[in-house]
Amino acid sequence: MKTMVALSLAVAVAVSVSACQTPQQQNALIGGGLGAGTGALVGSAVSGGNAGSTIAGAAIGAGTGALIGAAATPPPQGRCAQWGYDYNGNRVCVAFY
Known about the structure:
By secondary structure, the protein is α+β, with helices and mostly antiparallel strands. It has helices at about 1-15, 25-45, 50-70; strands spanning about 80-85, 90-95.
């Protein structure tokens, strides 16, 4: 039961931050989701099903997956089709062609 609650909470958090604007943000979200799932599986397998270890594995996996996903984003190809601004006010390209 606790695992289902934790999984439901993780899905709710993932859906709430799914409005990603740039390819780097999209890759970080996907990497975080895959890392959380893998970390939860590894944490559960190593601890014999302990809920605390499963949640810790999911948290560590999510952070690591998000970092790797964001770092693995290739540079954009082509020219910018649409400009936008990030939360610091810097002008960034949000769509390429």
